[in-house]
Amino acid sequence: MLDIWTEDDKKGNAPTSRPKLRQIVFINSAAAFLGLPGSIAYTRKFLIMIVQITQALLLMLSLKAAKCAVRALADTLRMEVLRYNCPQSTYSIHCAFPADFVSPGFMLEQNTKTPLTKRIQGVDKPISELQAKFPSSEKVGSQIIAAVDKGEFIICEDSLAASLLFTGMIGPSPKRGWGIVDGLLSPVVGWFAWPILRWKWEAMIRQDGEEMRKSRT
After folding, report:
1. Structural domain range at position 57
2. Collapsing DSSP states into helix, strand and coil, what is residue 23?
């Protein structure tokens, strides 16, 4: 897609009013921020990449990639496309990390997800309760598009948990806004929230292992 766009820019056609807005939006997952038992296969599920050619046209492509690798790819491309900005086009890259939301895929994976994973994720409840608890795919999609329109690179609009998880990530991804809130929350999440969650999850995993061994004897 980038090759197509850059070749089009080389034609040198002057923009009618303003440069074309060429945006690539990676729809990743909050799973990129943590790893839980039972979710290894999920880290290689299909990724949806939304390519916004103009403000009115969306083209959706499917790619298969690990969630963490997608974040690294988005970070790299965000820097790379800066060299392609020209009078004809303005390029930008965005990466969204939605948490759980109600969709056919979410409903399907509840049938195969392990009980331990469900307990850790807090989805060990009837489907009706999950539908009331989590946002719809339409709502999450609208939030992502609105964030892209605002020029945000990291998008965690649908979930406070995903937003907090991102603050604990150290790497080249630019912080949101001026970075003040993310910068202040980062040590709090790293020093307090993560240790507590890790101890809680590790205890649940050990208990599940004990129950599994008892059931075999």
Report:
1. 19-170
2. strand
